[in-house]
Amino acid sequence: MGLRSTRIRGPLAGLVAALILGGGTGLVTGCGPRAGRITDVGATGGTRVEGGTATMALPPAATPNWIFPIGAPGYLATYNSSIQNLLYLPLYQPEKKGAELSLDSPRNLAEQPRYSDGNKTVTVTLKKGYRWSDGKPVTTRDVEFWFDLIKHNKAEWGGYSPKLLPDNIKRFQAIDERTFRLRLDRAYNPAWFTANQLLYFTPLPRHAWNPDDEDPKKVFARLTRHAKQLSAFATDPLWKTVNGPWKIRQWATSGQVALEPNARYSGPDKPHLDRVVFKPFTTADSEFNVLRSGGVDYGYIPPSVMAQSKKFQEMGYRVDPWEGWAITYLVLNFNHPTAGPLLRQTYLRQALQLLIDQRAISKVIWRGSADPTRGPVPASLLAKDPYPYDPAAAKRLLAAHGWKARDGGTLRCARPGTGGDACGKGIEEGQPLKLSLLSQSGSTESSNQMQEIKSSYDKAGITLDVRQQPLNTVLGTTVPCERTEPLCKAWELGFFGTAGSWYFPPDPSGEQLFATGAPSNMGNWSDPRTDELIKDTEYSGDPAAMRRYGEYVARKVPVLWTPNPAYQVSVIRNDLRGVDQNPTLSLAPQDWYFVKKGAGRK
């Protein structure tokens, strides 16, 4: 599971700019399943029963390890935020409505925002009746508490992008207990601001976490210390004050999380189950074996066993691919002391991309459950793949810039320098074209994909050493770094995309991903033109702004695009209903319930 697809279809204009604000329905259109995939809409009928325990399998080698609803670098995996949002409600939650992604959900803690003053002021009103689990009301002071924490600790917040939230808010004004107003530093595209800025706002229990009105820096440091004590998540009184539909029953260091209903929850979607369990597995194969034995109610099958889907249907399960609003890639560490000078050469990145046979990998290794990634936005926003598989073109590019090999071995720089036919700045004569890749473990498909890429590179004279580690280790290592930091020497290329590398917010702009200094810009990509184009998507409601950004960054290759798989091919018990596979990977187990049915119930 990556940092944040249903494959997106539909006109570009409908995709980005169709967030209808000011009390209307906010929609991003086109989130439909990919053509030609197995899609079983699920069992119907039956009598609902209250209670029971549903067990959901987590992705391979994924272990939830962060509970504080302000994400920290290295802890940004989507399964962390998905669980956090069940305990601490954000103001807005995207959800599917037919073939669309809506920001007007009944689960929202706030009414739709109101924009005024030429889109330089935003007014938000909380819905009535929401309370914390200790009975205290949820108020604008709780929203302001969250805002003060990120404002005074933005360098430690994993969602911080320079000049955006909280920098772009000149003033937070609490009008009353339920209404607050934001004075912005300039006019913004309301669709973008709601989808990609207000979506972060999450009230936190000020009365429980900061009863003495301490300095925000001291409070943040204290909360972060608690958030790093994984073994105490289930017992720490700090995490027992929640406002979501669930509260913690168990949070094991192994990664297993069990939630039970919050009896004081006042939202419209109160849980039907007695308990929901999120169960970790080291590999997809181990999960598959437990699934076959009936050990999970909501699991997945690896693409390699798609042919066995009928067996699960015969056993009383339904098969339903869960596709995400995502892209997948290999991240490049431009600040690595030796690999950095190589990776900063545009021609070299182009050659590396030309050697990745995305279509063959999608078809053979992922068994058709993945599609090529074309660039930094959903594939439907790009007219074509700028660098389709072409080994001959890659070899010509490398040769034209002075790379030669002896006796078919590894390429070495034969023409150092900065001229148009030279290897490039910082590359020494005789330096080998050798790179290392830190890739997540636990997936046969990911392992085979990396070996296929390695083989393709070997044939072109590029040596690629592949090392595999658990997902949390990869995420904790492949973080933005300065060239002088020891951690910056620990990785050159990284992969955390077995279930997609990056899950977009509703508006798929790039301020979190490829803007200079962005929190999820793991490789430290920095390009003035990229920054300009991203700003255009933030300020303008013109759908063409997103296309211009996507096409330009796709050609620049700041990462290496790889096949984007479905998040998982889900296998769900026929008597477990209410499951909605949100393309943003949010979860709503409060809507799940069992029915009396011949398949039986745990």
UniProtKB/TrEMBL annotation:
Domain annotation Solute-binding protein family: ranges: 108-482
Gene3D superfamilies listed in its UniProt record: Dipeptide-binding Protein, Domain 3, Periplasmic binding protein-like II
SUPFAM superfamilies according to UniProt: Periplasmic binding protein-like II
InterPro entries (alphabetical): Peptide/Ni-bd, SBP_5, SBP_5_dom
Keywords: Signal, Transport
Compartments where located: Cell envelope
Family: Belongs to the bacterial solute-binding protein 5 family.
Protein name per the record: Peptide ABC transporter substrate-binding protein
